[in-house]
Specification:
The chain is of the alpha+beta class. The chain has three domains: 4-271, Spore Coat Polysaccharide Biosynthesis Protein SpsA, Chain A (Alpha-Beta Complex); 276-343, no CATH class; 361-491, Sandwich (Jelly Rolls). It is built from 14 helices and 31 strands. The strands form six sheets. Strands 20-21-22-29-24-27-31 form a seven-stranded antiparallel sheet, with no helix packed on it. The longest helix has 15 residues, at 90-104. The chain is globular, with a radius of gyration of 25 Å.
Length: 492
């Protein structure tokens, strides 16, 4: 039986989960639970692996390639990477992956998986059981039996069994985000399912249907692939071609029109985690109904969720509240009002506030990154490199590394040096610089950049342990930092 290629699409901004989710670091790349938990994306990758599955295909924004690479490295998982220069909804992303797989294997099967859902239960048995139908040309969409009348989900109604494929059903119709009364009627009908966003088909089938229903997008995506650029970190689709693809979901372009559509019910616990109330509901509460994540003290508090990323948060005499504390933003809301959190994110975006777009820092497999200053062309950030960590920093003018604690090895195309606490070195403006922690203790580094061409977060690439190093280079003398040489730095 043909193996399945999982296709994980990392689109969406997740504004209802602000301040954890930001435009440049959306929900799918955030931890589901406490500090040691996996992210939504990592959980999706792990869920569909092993027997019956091939290496996953990941489609994400080009601005998220460092995050994708780091989170895959934490899992020790390989993947085929395709990066979008701009978001065009799920349809073009699915088509790009289908064309890529079809070029290697015209019989390839692909399973489309949202990167930001939480699923518990045996999902793969049902998925694998539908391989024959997908190979025979069916587009299988997976439905979840609804637990309540949700107006924010799409519904699929059951049109009866399909002969020769046990468990596969006809699709009577699709209902997109119905009003409350209609949602209740659908749930009561006992033939309606929530649309899970999970679907399976052959690459050949979805290509044929796109050629039939949206030939313009087919040509745009095909050309974007053919003229894309592969830098060894993934294929970047050509933006001049890709922008001409219709920004529509696969469901609207193909599923609602094709005669090949079929429904396979799933018997699992499923949640698309579209709000903080949903995050609370999927977490395990303590005896008082509280979900406490991070350094949190709760006194006389019940039925609440409190999450802290960095500092101590204490809550006294509260009930039915959601408190989310990040280094640069604090959210306090009541359970039942969480859908309106998106209005805060929309306000911040309209005001062009950085808090809508990105976090000040990030936790990575190699260590931590925090931004202290980014104003008037000056960027001051800190890096903490774990023992054995190796980073490559893209070249830009006027960027220097200052060691705060520990010993840092720095090398570029022409020189190498070891800097210790209190020493600094200019990074090569014309070639990438490699920063290594060759000790058994963490190394803290401050990076000062003036008029950098790209953000530091985008400039950093983690180098796998054992990767080839540049040839032997002469050492350069380290410079000891003096306050007079960098005015004002000690006050940052």
């Amino acid at each position: 039986m043909t193996n399945i290629h999982p296709l994980i699409i990392c689109g969406g901004n997740g504004t209802r989960l602000w301040p954890m989710s930001r435009t440049q670091s959306p929900k799918q790349f955030q931890r589901i639970g406490g500090e040691d938990s996996l992210t939504f994306f990592q959980t999706a990758v792990q869920r569909h692996s092993g027997e019956g599955f091939e290496t996953p295909v990941i489609v994400a924004s080009v601005g998220q390639r460092n995050t994708v690479a780091a989170q895959l490295a934490q899992l020790g998982t390989d993947a085929e990477l395709i990066y979008e220069p701009m978001g065009r909804n799920t349809g073009p992303a699915v088509l790009a992956a289908a064309l890529t797989l079809y070029a290697r294997d015209p019989k390839a099967l692909m399973l489309v998986i949202p990167a930001d859902h939480v699923i518990e239960g045996d999902i793969n048995t049902t998925i694998l059981a539908m391989r024959g139908a997908a190979s025979d040309g069916y587009i299988v969409t997976y439905g979840i039996k609804p637990r309540y009348a949700e107006t924010g989900f799409g519904y699929i109604t059951d049109g009866g069994p399909i002969a020769d494929y046990p468990g596969l059903r006809k699709v009577e119709r699709f209902v997109e985000k119905p009003p409350v009364r209609k949602a209740r009627l659908l749930v009561e009908s006992d033939i309606a399912y929530w649309a899970s966003g999970i679907s399976m088909f052959s690459a050949a089938t979805i290509i044929e249907e796109y050629q039939r229903f949206d030939p313009g997008s087919f040509v745009a995506v095909q050309q974007a692939l053919e003229t894309g650029a592969d830098d060894g970190r993934g294929l970047l689709l050509n933006p001049d071609c890709f922008r001409h693809a219709e920004s529509l979901p696969t469901e609207q372009v193909v599923f609602e029109k094709t005669r090949r559509i079929a429904l396979a019910p799933l018997d699992v616990s499923w949640n698309d985690v579209g709000s903080w109330s949903a995050m609370y509901s999927i977490s395990k509460p303590d005896t008082k109904g509280n979900v406490l994540q991070g350094d949190v003290i709760a006194v006389e508090t019940s039925n609440s969720m409190v999450r802290s990323d960095t500092r101590l948060v204490s809550v006294v005499g509260m009930s039915d509240v959601i408190i989310i504390d990040t280094p640069d933003a604090l959210l306090v809301t009541k359970v039942g009002h969480c859908q309106n959190v998106k209005k805060v994110a929309e306000h911040l975006k309209a005001a062009k506030r950085a808090e809508a777009e990105k976090h000040r820092g990030s936790h990575n497999s190699w260590g931590d990154h925090a931004q202290l200053i980014d104003k008037n062309g000056v960027n001051l950030s800190t890096l903490t490199l774990r023992p054995g960590a190796v980073l490559e920093i893209a070249p830009t003018a006027s960027r220097e590394a200052i060691v705060v604690r520990g010993s840092l090895h720095v090398e570029n195309a022409t020189a190498q040096s070891t800097l210790v606490a209190g020493e600094r070195g200019l990074l090569d403006p014309k070639s990438a610089s490699r920063l290594s922690n060759r000790t058994d203790e963490p190394v803290e580094v401050a990076l000062l950049s003036l008029a950098a061409e790209v953000s530091l977060a985008e400039a950093i690439t983690a180098v796998p342990v054992g990767a080839a190093r540049p040839s032997t280079r002469p050492h350069v003398r380290a410079t000891t930092l003096k306050d007079s040489e960098t005015p004002g730095l000690r006050h940052a």
